[in-house]
């Protein structure tokens, strides 16, 4: 009886292990990462398939850099906190820095010395019928030692944003 069930338990254990690895990989920056606050320039679209979300453009998403960068290149943006606690660009590198705070991104558009960079934290999803202030918004992100980032929370004037939801109506 036990020998009959062994393949089933082995497959279930493998599936469970793979699932746990995916969850751990996704949550690793939140569990171990350094928390930084990034300046933003948000846009608020709606997609019928994905729902309500906000596209977040960061101050560090557009960088003036000399060098030969191509679309798809991995880039490390060095960060330094200013006197208000906002982390801003303090240089760039093609290689992972050893003694500096940084965030890892991909070049999505290289035009001369102007680079457009994405970090994987450009969208924030929330429920439909939400009212979300976007002025004076910053983002608290956790950045792992490898440079991967995850959004921790949205801030307005340095305080967590409280998302207000409109009353749900069957007609909405």
Describe it.
- Helices cover 18% and strands 45% of the residues.
- It is of the alpha+beta class and 172 residues long.
- The protein folds into two domains: 1-32; 34-165, no CATH class.
- Strands 1, 2, 3, 9, 11, 12 and 13 form a seven-stranded antiparallel sheet that branches.
- Strand 12 and strand 13 (159-160) form a beta hairpin.
- The longest helix has 31 residues, at 2-32.
- It is globular and about 65 Å long.
- The N and C termini lie far apart (56 Å).
- The model has no long low-confidence stretch (mean pLDDT 84).
Percent helix = 10-25%
Summarize the main sheet: 7 strands, antiparallel
Shape: globular
Distinct helical segment count: 1
Distance between the termini: 56 Å
Q: What is the domain total for the residues?
A: 2
List keywords for this structure.
globular, 172 residues, alpha+beta, 18% helix, 1 helix, seven-stranded antiparallel sheet
Quick take:
The protein is α+β, with helices and mostly antiparallel strands. The chain contains one helix and 14 strands.
List the helices and strands and how they pair.
Layout: H1 2-32, E1 34-43, E2 46-47, E3 51-58, E4 62-64, E5 74-81, E6 87-93, E7 102-111, E8 114-118, E9 123-126, E10 130-131, E11 137-143, E12 149-156, E13 159-160, E14 164-165
Antiparallel strand pairs: 1-3, 1-11, 2-3, 3-9, 4-8, 5-6, 5-7, 7-8, 10-14, 11-12, 12-13
